[in-house]
């Protein structure tokens, strides 16, 4: 059942590459929304965007962990595209984040995302996590999406984070791409 779905995604991506003469030339964050589901476990110290220029926006967030070390982290990543409301688009995956960090190549799309996230965060190591989680001044650049040409539009990436088989937080990141 997975092969037809993968084939559809592959042909869509290939078609996008072949028929699109203009890949996205601009991309920026438009909003971020962080929700804590288990405040005794962790809470957001801050979760914000800062406009650096008209087309450049930096994302920063800090999660304070109260129960450390954290040895078991789950992650659900969902992509949505705005079509008269946000609709599921291209990707919805739940995974063991600690295992993913040991072998990032297993999930190609997340590997692409992690490559541009890693230099701006302290989550660039495997479990356990013994300190706050920080993402500092992450700025999106069009070349990050060269391997994944997205059509121009508005997107939402919903990241649900869990630990010890219990969901702890949700981060909704909104972005816009245009040619």
UniProtKB/TrEMBL annotation:
<dbReference type="Pfam" id="PF06477">
    <property type="entry name" value="DUF1091"/>
</dbReference>
<feature type="signal peptide">
    <location>
        <begin position="1"/>
        <end position="19"/>
    </location>
</feature>
<keyword id="KW-0732">Signal</keyword>
<protein>
    <submittedName>
        <fullName>Uncharacterized protein LOC115065931</fullName>
    </submittedName>
</protein>
<dbReference type="InterPro" id="IPR010512">
    <property type="entry name" value="DUF1091"/>
</dbReference>
């Amino acid at each position: 059942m997975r092969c037809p779905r993968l084939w559809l995604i592959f042909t869509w991506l290939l078609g996008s590459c072949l028929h699109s003469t203009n890949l996205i030339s601009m991309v920026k964050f438009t909003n971020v929304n962080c929700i804590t589901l288990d405040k005794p476990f962790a809470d957001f110290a801050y979760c914000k965007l800062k406009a650096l220029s008209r087309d450049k926006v930096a994302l920063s967030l800090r999660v304070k962990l109260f129960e450390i070390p954290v040895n078991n982290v789950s992650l659900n990543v969902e992509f949505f595209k705005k079509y008269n409301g946000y609709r599921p688009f291209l990707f919805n995956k739940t995974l063991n984040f600690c295992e993913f960090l040991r072998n990032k190549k297993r999930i190609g799309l997340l590997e692409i995302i992690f490559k541009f996230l890693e230099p701006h965060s302290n989550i660039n190591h495997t479990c356990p996590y013994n300190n706050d989680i920080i993402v500092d001044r992450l700025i999106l650049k069009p070349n990050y999406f060269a391997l994944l040409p997205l059509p121009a539009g508005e997107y939402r990436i919903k990241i649900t984070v869990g630990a010890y088989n219990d969901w702890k937080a949700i981060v909704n990141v909104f972005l816009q791409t245009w040619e």
